[in-house]
Design brief:
The complex is a heterodimer.
Chain A lengths: L3 E3 L4 E4 L4 E7 L4 E9 L6 E6 L3 E5 L2 E6 L4 E6 L8 E9 L8 E2 L3 E6 L1
Parallel strand pairs in A: 2-11
Antiparallel strand pairs in A: 1-3, 3-8, 4-5, 4-9, 6-7, 7-8, 9-10, 9-11
Chain B lengths: L3 E4 L2 E4 L5 E7 L5 E8 L3 E10 L2 E4 L6 E3 L9 E3 L8 E8 L8 E2 L3 E5 L1
Parallel strand pairs in B: 2-11
Antiparallel strand pairs in B: 1-3, 3-8, 4-5, 4-9, 5-6, 7-8, 9-10, 9-11
Classes of the chains: A mainly beta, B mainly beta.
Amino acid sequence: QKEVEQDPGPLSVPEGAIVSLNCTYSNSAFQYFMWYRQYSRKGPELLMYTYSSGNKEDGRFTAQVDKSSKYISLFIRDSQPSDSATYLCATRPLSGGYNKLIFGAGTRLAVHP
Amino acid sequence: DGGITQSPKYLFRKEGQNVTLSCEQNLNHDAMYWYRQDPGQGLRLIYYSQIVNDFQKGDIAEGYSVSREKKESFPLTVTSAQKNPTAFYLCASSIDPDSYGYTFGSGTRLTVV
C-alpha cells in the first residue's frame, strides 16, 4: 500500500465549477500537509500548506485536513482554465531533523472554457 | 530573480552512456534534492543533500550518483547501471532540511535512444 494515495484523474470540468481534489494517507505520524501545482513540463510549485485539522483558505483555494480519517482535500472555487494543471498532495511527519516529503501521484485537472 | 536552474531541458542518452544533469540554485538554500517523476508514480526521491559536502541516498538511488561541492550546485549523474533511466528529473531546494516548502526547477526530460 502506498503511503499517500491520490486519484490520477484526469478530471475535466467546465469553467466556474467547484473542483474537489483528494488524497488519503496511511501513517498517523504525518502532520504537515501540502498541495503543489505542476503545469505541463514544469516543476511543481507550493500552493498551500497546513498543519492542523480543519480548513485553510487562500483566495479561491481551500485546503481541508481530516486527521481522524487520514483524508486531505483541495477545493478550487470558480475554476479557471489557468487552473488546468496536475495537483500533487504531499505530507511529512512533524519536524525533528530531516523528514522527506511523501508525494501523491498527482491528479490532472482540465478546466475548459 | 532567485530560483533553480536545471539544464539541459531535454537530454538523449545512448545505451551504456553516463550523463550528468545540472542543477544550480541562487536562493542560498542549504538543502537540495533530486526527484524522478514517472507517469502514475508521483515524485520519487533519488538523493538529497542537507549541507555542502554531504549527501544521502533516497528511495531509488541505484544507478545514480551526486556531488555537493558547492552550496549552489547539486549535479546528478545517471550511470549506465540505471536500467530504466527514461523519466522526468526534478531538482529542488529548501532553506533547510526541516522545511516543507520546496522550490523546484523546471526539470530535465531524459530519454534513452
